[in-house]
Amino acid sequence: MSSVLLVEDDEHTRERLAGIVSATKGLALCGTAGSLAEAREILRNSYPDVLLTDLGLPDGDGIELIRQVRETTPPAEAMVISVFGDEQRVIAALKAGAAGYILKDGTTEHIGSAIIQLLEGGSPISPAIARHLLKQLQPPEKAPIPDKVASLLSGREVDVLTAVAKGFTYNEIADMLNISFHTVSSHVKHIYRKLEVCSRSEAVYEAVNLGLISLDD
Fold it and tell me: Domains in the chain, start-ordered, CATH in brackets?
């Protein structure tokens, strides 16, 4: 059973999301909070597997919580659940360590499955957010990639990172590329080191910016 800390300031929305988490097989709430302070108090004694948080809280920014749980040992997975926001806040959340970003108006099934996907190594992002974000990440002109940048990742590492960016789990990537789960994990570690990042979302962000991968397909 994986534990979830839910942080949402609107009481009605918080109750709805809490019900979704409780109704999803394999998930259990370890606490709910309506503010940054309440969440931090819970985190003093709890170590959730997943942080599900809004960004706009009455006493601060959910991004602060994302950073906090990513620095714990072991780190919790973090996912934003919010209304549609500007791309800069989306990017800031991903750079802070969030591995997913979904919208509050998603269905019960969609939100529950997104949390499970996150725990399985995926990066669930609502289609509307993904389309908006990719427009900002894609370079305005298809300039040739410098040789030094182009050779930064091996062909297999590019394949793995592209699959990670599209939300596939490590097991799914292993099946797709006919390699072992441990080989996928090893490739991801090498990608993190080469791109000087520490999360899936950061790796995807850097690789798209450098032109190493494209998510258009």
Answer: 2-135 (3.40.50.2300), 140-210 (1.10.10.10)
